[in-house]
Amino acid sequence: MESGGLSLNNVVLSVHGKPVLNDVSFHADEQRIGLIGANGSGKSTLARVILGLLQINSGDLRVHGVDIWNDRKAALKTVGMLFQNPDHQIIFPTCEEEIAFGLTQLGQPKDQARRTALAILTQFDRRDWANRSTHDLSQGQRHFLCLLSVLVMQPKLLVFDEPYAGLDLPTSIQLHRSIDALDQQVVLITHDMDVLAGFDRVIWLDQGQVVGDGTPADVIPKYITEMTARAGQPDA
Ligand SMILES: Nc1ncnc2c1ncn2[C@@H]1O[C@H](COP(=O)(O)OP(=O)(O)OP(=O)(O)O)[C@@H](O)[C@H]1O
To answer: What are the φ and ψ backbone dihedral angles of 32, each rounded to 5 degrees?
Structure first.
């Protein structure tokens, strides 16, 4: 198995006896990878597996050579995720504490972690957020805080699950630019095909299986045709 990038070999995950990921295999070392599929096709489950939050039943998964489930310390430095809902991610009262937390998990002393948190807030023109209450932030701002909390860990792979859902246009544009500028490998789950323009690769999941895999130009038109057919004909 190749050591760089994201490698899945015959990954199976069942929930209550029903396969949610059904023999998923691919190797991806491209910088920008889109993950698409209808509701319930297994995208978020796959993201949680990549992050090491769910254990697979069989198969093999490596992220940049790391066995994410069994090597938790290495996992923290290897992969980070921005969840659909920032409320599932934010746990601390102030922005600085929220950002510093992951670094202390990596073993940084608290003082150093706070300095690093301040540095990233300054880098993104949010120095004034340091002592700001996380509860007082708007939803878009909370998303942005989560992004900073993940970026500060400098993971090799970042997973974004519907990052633009519910954001207003300026916040969405700002987040889009931030994601665009990242040096890291990115896996982005979305229902918005426009977001995937310029991506290197798109993987299409259906009922827990990879049914399409290629460039956006290859995969997206087929996906739209299939989804349109499933939607059926409009009523006469
Ligand atoms: N904890 C769970 N318990 C029961 N079923 C689950 C659980 N997690 C996921 N599933 C099922 O697994 C399937 C895939 O769910 P998943 O959330 O991964 O889909 P998705 O592609 O991310 O969907 P969406 O586009 O709606 O976000 C669904 O049928 C879902 O009902």
So the answer is: -125, 115
Over its C-alpha atoms, the chain yields an Rg (Å, rounded) of 18
Q: Which residues surround ligand 1 with Cβ inside 6 Å? A: 15-16, 20, 37, 39-45
- Calpha distance 225→236 (Å, rounded): 20
Q: Measured in angstroms, how far is the CA atom of residue 126 from the centroid of ligand 1? A: 35
Predicted complex ipTM: 0.94
Q: pLDDT value at position 234?
A: 65
Say which CATH topology domain 30-54+66-227 has: Rossmann fold (3.40.50)
Cα 22 to averaged position of ligand 1 atoms, centre (Å): 13
Residue with the nearest Cα to atom 19 of ligand 1? 40
- Identify the residue whose C-alpha is closest to ligand 1 atom 16: 42
How many percent of the chain have pLDDT more than 70?
A: 97
Tell which atom from ligand 1 comes closest to the C-alpha of 84.
Answer: 27
Give the tokens for residue 198: 């310029």
Ranges in the chain, pLDDT < 50: 1, 236
CA nearest ligand 1 atom 30, residue: 40
192 Cα to the center of ligand 1, angstroms: 19
